[in-house]
Amino acid sequence: MKNNRDPGRLARKVVSTAIKHVFLILMALISIYPVLYVVALAFSSGESLSTPNFLLGIIPLPTSFTIDHFASILKLQVVTGSNFPVWVRNSALITATTVVGSVALTLPAGYAFSRRSFRGQQVSMFSFLLPTMFPGVITIIPQFLLFASLGLVNTYWAVIIPFIVGSLSLSIFIMKSAFDSIPKEIDEAAMIDGAGELRIFWRMLVPLTLPSIATVGLWSFMGSWLDWALSHVMLSNNSLWTLPLALYDFLEPNYTYYGSFSALSLVMAVPVFVVFMIFQKYLVSGLTAGSVKG
Amino acid sequence: MASRSGPGGVLHRIRGSAWLFILPALIGLFFLVLYPFAFNIFVSFTNMNTYHIRPCAAIFTSAAGCYSVQSDLFKNYLSVFTDPAFLQIALNTIIWTFANVIPHVTIGLVLAFVLNSKVRGKSIYRMFMIVPWAMPSFITLLIWKEMFNYQYGVINALLAHIGVGAINWLNGGCSSAMLAMIIANVWLGYPFMMIIFSGALQSIPSELYEAASIDGAVGLRQMWHISIPMIRPTIVIGFFLGCIWTFNNFNAAYLITAGGPYAVANGSVFGCSTIFITEAYNLAFPGGGGLANYAVGAAYAFIAFLMLLVPGILWNRSTGLTRRAS
Fold first, then answer.
1. Which has the closest alpha carbon to B155: B142, B141, B171, B166?
2. Which residues 195-214 of chain A have a CB within 8 Å of chain B?
3. pLDDT 10s per residue in chain A (294 long)?
4. 3-class SS at B97?
5. Do B24 and A113 touch (CB under 8 A)?
6. pTM of the model
7. Looking at this predicted complex, what is its ipTM?
8. A229 contacts B254 by C-beta, under 8 angstroms
9. Which residue of B has its CA nearest to A19?
10. CATH 1.10.3720.10 occupies which residues in chain A?
11. Domain A75-291 classified CATH 3.40.50.300?
12. What are the extents of the domains in chain B?
């Protein structure tokens, strides 16, 4: 590059690189700041919120280091009969059922939308997109009234069924685009060899869509593991509380457990974060398939 | 409409059972989305609340303790539109949507461009940048609520460093509560935009840039004349999707402020940071034994839906998601 010999140009290049790095470092710091803060709080002693110490005047550090909060969330009872093992059990049951259910529903639907062409296809595909455009509350109110009239409020089903259905609108399009990306020649060759449709679907196509199945599973996992709005309405019974309901309650103004809140948020968030980072590539491509490109 | 001829080749042979594959999902969709949606519209014309909870024998005749369609059909909608708080809530909703989506798209775009240029350590930077998206938002929003704490929150502590007095973010004035909510949600939203814009930038064929350099266009001019026009469709989709998601983001609008603090204007109490969806939720599920006004809540929810229809349709058009694979 002969241009680099020009001193004015070189100087401008150095300045623009420096500006880029300053900007990126600043944005990186902003991006992780709440995490740094909650880590500092989780390892600070005492339950009350206190101003952390700062490193370099910006980065929060624990006031006096302790790991007590991680031990105490195990036995903390915000309300009688409702504690950490109960919340974990409820959350795990609800989430596992939701994940299995949404994969079971989206696999065949994604297949049919990709491989078949039938009367009413456009309309039914559009109806699966509709929930994306619905404000969540437009369904929460009538869903609550529906489950109340069926006597299902304060049961696991009151959240599991809406979670499964709620994940469909994105998941079906993720699965459709996964099946779209498998050449139709594979089906045709197998069909000429005499394989039935269900066999082709189950034995040949489904294994090829495993990354997308993981994405769908992960998507519904994230939707149900950390839901608060619907659970808050449907699961008022303390013994049915899930982790997010308990976590929210830690911040009730009457009795604040900031230390335990911070420790529990890390315990809840870190697994999700790790899984997300591992499957990042699939999540990104799945999500863009389901929302950005057709 | 779908054409009647199936995809080419032997796949012609199978037909008819397509609905069996979709039926389970469709039944779920019907009972939990479409039926509740219709029921929501119905409820918005009734007098359903804590005291009128079961349906009357005849839907147009009211009796004690049951709900029926209002004799004055649009009573709930009228009470919504004539409530002085309505204008404030509508204004809040519009501010909330644009004050979030414009920074989302702008920051996302700038980050995508910077990370797409020649700069050292971009994969590490990128990993940091997606933390707001990778961390569960339910939890990070509650952390933001702590950060905005008046007495001990880290934001006021940082402001004190630069000589700015403590701001009562969540329980002070109206604008500070809105601002707190917007800051937290802007933080939540830019990584997604950055990711979709980076993806779009990387898919631009490098020949275009090479041809432009030969013609003498470099740097910002390349960005302006090649990159931006090439990724414009993605920017448009990102913008509409951002509008829909922000408008619908109940957690972001509720967990930090729960719609408050409350103020009085023209003799009517309104939530400073209340938007349509939080108003609907608060009306139907007031908590603390308050009167649950399902009917007016449902009316608010339906108005929110109508407002969303515009970006929703534009989004659907710009993606072509429902078009069949050719």
1. B166
2. 197
3. 445 567 777 888 888 889 989 999 999 999 999 998 888 888 887 777 776 777 777 788 777 777 877 888 777 766 666 788 888 899 999 999 999 999 999 999 999 888 888 888 888 888 887 777 676 777 888 888 888 888 999 999 999 999 998 888 888 888 888 888 888 888 888 888 888 888 888 888 888 888 889 888 888 888 888 888 889 889 988 888 898 888 888 877 666 778 888 888 888 888 888 888 887 777 777 666 666 654
4. helix
5. no
6. 0.82
7. 0.80
8. yes
9. B114
10. 75-291
11. no
12. 98-250
